[in-house]
């Protein structure tokens, strides 16, 4: 019977280029990334068995829940921001209070759990948030802008960190 490591290696696609940790790197516990076709290999145990993309998608569900809450609050408070004049008919102070009270009682750390809790208090309001969250991710969120912003933020942070490191070398 093949070991798990052998089976995993056999299931991986052939590497375009492979870098293997050298002896001194291993001693320093520094591993050179193994570059595979299509990108870097991230060990599956890094995020509890999830890929980085799946982990990000899970975190983004909570972000999209927060966005849905803001959108629905704006509608329920009678704000017409981004909606023309049509949102004025959605004014509902009771639903606004329900959302604010639920936010006070249950911090929005996990979008799914937060919505489940709201579902027990006000099913129609929770349903509205679920629908807005789904519509926003499909139609409203600007994925290209997010990617550009993430790359720009990462590059900017990396430059700042490297600059600080270089400055500290000369102190």
What would you note in describing this structure?
By secondary structure, the protein is mainly α. The chain has a domain at 58-142: Non-ribosomal Peptide Synthetase Peptidyl Carrier Protein, Chain A (Orthogonal Bundle), CATH 1.10.1200. The chain has seven helices and two strands; from the N terminus they run H-H-E-E-H-H-H-H-H. The chain has helices at residues 4-11, 23-27, 52-76, 93-105, 111-121, 123-140, 143-169; strands at 35-36, 39-40. Strands 1-2 form a two-stranded antiparallel ribbon. A hairpin with a 2-residue loop joins strand 1 (35-36) and strand 2 (39-40). Helix 3 packs across helix 6. The protein is elongated, with a radius of gyration of 23 Å. The N and C termini lie far apart (58 Å). Residues 1-19 and 25-30 have low confidence and may be disordered.
What features would you highlight for this structure?
Chaperonin_RcbX; two-stranded antiparallel ribbon; mainly alpha; photosynthesis; disordered N terminus; Chaperonin_RbcX_sf; carbon dioxide fixation; Non-ribosomal Peptide Synthetase Peptidyl Carrier Protein, Chain A; 2% strand; protein folding chaperone
